[in-house]
From TrEMBL:
Gene3D superfamilies associated with the record: FAD/NAD(P)-binding domain
Keyword Oxidoreductase: yes
UniProt keyword Coiled coil present: no
Protein name, entry field: Flavin-containing monooxygenase
Annotated organism of origin: Knufia fluminis
Length: 492
């Protein structure tokens, strides 16, 4: 491992984070910029990011692995939706196969970063086993994900401090937790809650999901017969890419269909849920969302496992507000009392862009919430720094791939022309207009996104041009490979 060897601290490129974004960036650097030196600094003890950190029962992807996996190393397992162990093994095997693991320095946490205009270089303070050292690089790619690995989003549940049982956040699930025969309450309605409910119901006495409002479900087969046909009848090289293309097109179509025809999409999705429920079950209130499809991310339930647990009688759903938590459960606004041995707060993640590092330019720190994102990848007024921020409406890795290709293209252009830096900028008139008229970088109204905006921990986006949020993989990839990279950009 690179962390066990003497490693250079002065490099051409530094990637921060060895999750799926960082591994993808490493691949593109070494294949598209083969003459540049690079390393990957990872704060934890192993690669994998989310798929190494989270340990709760049943944790799985909420996107298909054919598009969530790497374009250059296609997913080849039978299940399109996979659990964390399989995903982590896929990442480890891929990093080893392409020698990316040799570039990773583990337990190296980046605490501060400063760009020097005089030196045209980044300097960063890196903590490793109680020691702080300085690393320098011309270019930085932030593959740090979108949430805080060290602190969860605080669950605002009235009276939670009264509870005498266990309160558990899924981000820090105790691996030795025994929940057999327990009464469990899950608070939340997102992907984590929908994953936990059927998996906990296998051993628990009763699992009750408490949600303020329901979400939309996409019920996918555990194994798609069409994928099996492709694999059985076509060469592996072709079948892998054809299956990936199928999921790319279907995902894009699904999103666009929901946004263009929300009422019809609502009916189609509701019909799918109705087919999973016992005959005569009323959709309202537990399965009738108040918002339009894709105002929040959809919940995927492979093979309808969520609804199987609900039909079994070992899982229940309550759509209500929490009045207060008591010593042995909670009271809902309706007056209903629920008993519990455990409460699980599946209420979202604490969004953090940049892994928690303090970033400054010429010694002057700034708040990223005051900055706009250029092409969904670079911060206004910050040179030679690319963020990998995934899609809200598709697989994370698709946007990660577009960002890595954009970054390496720009780096190669600068290396070839002798230019030292690329800095996104707004004219005073543009700044004034966009301050008045901007949009969220992540176009979702989920609680964790709203919380990030309230805490001012997420950059802003514009309504037009290079400052619009990303939303379409095909458009974004074309622009990353062939689009204009001089508009709104200052090179020196």
């Amino acid at each position: 491992m690179a962390s066990e060897k003497a490693a250079s601290t002065n490099l051409d490129v530094i990637v921060i984070g060895a999750g799926i974004s960082g591994i993808n960036a490493g691949y593109h650097i070494q294949t598209r910029c083969p003459n540049l030196s690079y390393t990957i600094l990872e704060g934890r003890h192993e690669l994998g990011g989310t798929w190494s950190l989270f340990k709760y029962p049943g944790i799985r992807s909420d996107s298909d692995l054919h598009t969530f996996g790497f374009s250059w190393e296609p997913w080849n397992q039978p299940n399109a939706i996979a659990e964390a162990d399989l995903i982590r093994s896929y990442l480890q095997d891929t990093a080893k196969k392409h020698h990316i693991d040799e570039k990773i320095q583990y337990e190296h946490f980046v605490s501060k970063m400063n760009w020097s205009t005089a030196e045209q270089k980044w300097s960063m303070e890196v903590e490793h086993k109680g020691q702080t050292s300085t690393y320098q690089a011309k270019y930085i790619i932030m593959g740090t994900g979108y949430y805080d690995y060290r602190q969860p989003l605080e669950a605002r549940i009235p009276g939670l401090e009264n509870f005498q049982g266990q309160v558990i956040h899924p981000q820090f699930w105790p691996e030795d937790l025994d929940y057999s025969g327990k009464k469990i309450i899950i608070v939340g309605s997102g992907a984590t809650a929908v994953t936990l409910l059927p998996n906990l119901a296998k051993k628990a006495e009763l699992v009750t999901q408490v949600q303020r409002s329901p979400g939309y479900f996409l019920i996918l087969p555990a194994n798609d017969p069409l994928d099996g046909w492709f694999k059985a009848n076509l060469p592996t090289f072709i079948s892998k890419r054809l299956i990936r293309f199928k999921y790319l097109v279907l995902g894009t179509f699904m999103y666009q269909f929901c946004r263009m025809f929300p009422n019809y999409a609502r009916k189609v999705l509701s019909k799918g849920v109705q087919a999973q429920l016992p005959p005569g079950t009323d959709m309202d209130p537990h399965f009738k969302p108040a918002y339009k499809p894709w105002d929040q991310r959809m919940c995927i339930t492979p093979g309808g496992d969520y609804f199987k647990a609900y039909r079994s009688g070992k899982a229940d759903i309550k759509t209500d507000h929490i009045q207060t938590v008591t010593e042995d459960g909670m009271i809902l606004k309706s007056g209903e009392r629920l008993k519990a041995d455990m409460i699980i707060t599946a209420t979202g993640l604490k969004i953090q862009v940049g892994g928690g590092a303090e970033i400054s330019v010429d010694g002057k720190p700034f708040n990223i919430a005051d900055k706009f994102m250029w092409r969904g990848a670079m911060l206004q007024d910050v040179p030679n720094l690319w963020y990998v921020i995934g899609y809200a409406n598709a697989s994370w890795t698709l946007a990660a791939d577009a960002s890595a290709r954009l970054a390496t293209r720009m780096i190669n252009s600068m290396e070839g022309s002798g230019r030292k830096s690329a800095t996104p900028f707004l004219t005073p008139d543009q700044q004034q207009q966009m301050d008045k008229d901007n949009v969220p970088l992540l176009p979702l109204n989920s609680t964790y996104v709203s919380s990030a905006m309230d805490r001012r921990t997420i950059p802003r986006a514009g309504k037009s041009g290079n400052w619009k949020p990303r939303s379409n993989y095909f458009v974004d990839m074309f622009r990353s490979l062939y689009g204009n990279v001089t508009s709104g950009m200052q090179y020196k």
